[in-house]
Amino acid sequence: MERAFHPWPEELARKYERRGYWQPLALGEQFRHWASRHATRTALVDGATRLSFADLDARIDRLAAGFHALGLVAGDRVLVQLPNSAGFVAACFALFRLGVVPVLAMPAQRSAEIDALCQVAEPAAYLLPERFLGFDYRPMAEEIAARHPSLRFLIVDGAPGPHLTLEGLERPRRDFAAPGHRDVALLLLSGGTTGTPKLIPRTHADYAYAARASAELCGLGPDSVTLAALPLAHNFPLCCPGLIGTFSVGGTVVLARTPGFDEAFPLIARERVTITALVPALARLWTAARAWNQDDLSSLALLQVGGARLEPAAATELRAALGCRVQQVFGMAEGLLCYTRPDDPDDVVLTTQGRPLSPDDEVRIVDEDGNEVAPGESGELLTRGPYTIRGYYRAGTANAASFTPDGFYRSGDLVRRTAGGNLVVEGRVKDQINRGGEKIAAAEIEQHLRAHPAVRDAAVVAVPDPRLGERSCAVLIAPESQPGLDGLHAFLRGRGLPRHKLPDQVAFVRSWPLTAIGKIDKKQLARLARMPEAEA
Ligand code: J2J
């Protein structure tokens, strides 16, 4: 079997421990520690259910005993595909207590993706909801279990049927040997949108550090109330500071099933939510909804936005509409987290994606040959540090492409550093169209297209072309009037673009197809652009 986990070099691990980044406690024990300090405070609100830290701690213990009774042991993997719910939270921490490793899948994922995850992770159990947003997960899980002999248990969070239920697993509390703090705690999915999914092994110590340091940076305390609107299987709402960071300071986490404003706004008003995290696509919807929505959002102090590019204009409108501070977060499940700080000046918050969380995060910005670019120039972001992985889980030779020999993660992100030391994400290194040998950066053309008065948003994708290899297609959201290709060319030429950078075709969509977490799904756009009716 290929290597599951690539540890940090021993002397660095010691340094991270000496500096107090890595604490000698596994996440399950961390929670016990937080719960003993904040026992009577409310940890979790899930609909009508309110759990104090002590309640949740006890439920975690009962579930850990239940998982143990099934025969699950430290090092086993369990696929967790649950919507935001108390069951999700209790199950994950119960697995942490045993050293069993949850593999976090998004509720929106379906059998092709789940199959691929099972192939790599070989989970012993699959934790699923009965139904969520109209989809019955049980038939899918049964089919998947039939194809993957590693899967011994299907555990349903919901009404009893032929399967085990999460509630039915609970057993009286007992003590277990805790896993080591340097052991793998959980497997996250990489945000990468191509090929087979990559699994990201995060350790107890590094994950707890990212959560605690993020909570401190965001100024969280016991009175903080965090709304988990995005799916908790994603690193952002889970750890930045999210659920785990909020628990670490004795704050309250309120769970939303879906990230729409129709669910979120009443929750913010009812629970006096102080902080939440969104992707830009949702931030735009929340902004628009405030034109007529009357919910009292005055408690909201900080709105975090990350996961994809946030236009400065959108950031400005969002801040005005929600009446709170905005924070840009440029993060990756592989590790590195960059934040604008709550007290940063406006231009930093509105136009940059902030700077690294840890004093020991290392960032290099390099050209195609791996050489550092001149200050202010753009290049690929490479990073390593106390919470950035050194290799994907069981990825074999794929790791050689994603990590440098000296342990930097190659993010694939094209960034530049401002004079003030903040990073600006300009696109993806490989998000380019190779038009007869001329490389065109999609991000550059998109930026010009967005300046067109009729264009609300733009994405440029490659379409296979028999002559050029690839040609470019501009996919536009233009709700009022759809500019033709000639008009677009004239406009772009007016902005100084050369002929080969002008889109070869144009297509229109009413809204973006989104990935499971809510980023623009460029793969799907490229498929759409290939369809003949999309041609201009
Ligand atoms: C542009 N691109 C961004 C940003 C991420 C917090 C926030 C986000 C993620 C995340 C995360 C971006 N502007 N502000 O894990 O903890 C793109 C980059 C990056 C990739 C990582 C977190 N913030 N991105 O999005 O693992 O391309 O993590 O490399 O899903 O999203 O995706 P993912």
UniProtKB/TrEMBL annotation:
KW Lyase (keyword) present: yes
Enzyme class of the recorded protein, top EC level: lyase
GO molecular function, one term: isochorismate pyruvate lyase activity
EC number: 4.2.99.21
Keywords recorded for this protein, A-Z: Lyase
Domain AMP-binding enzyme C-terminal: 444-519
AMP-dependent synthetase/ligase domain segment(s): 31-393
Protein name, UniProt field: Salicylate synthase
Organism of this sequence: Phaeospirillum tilakii
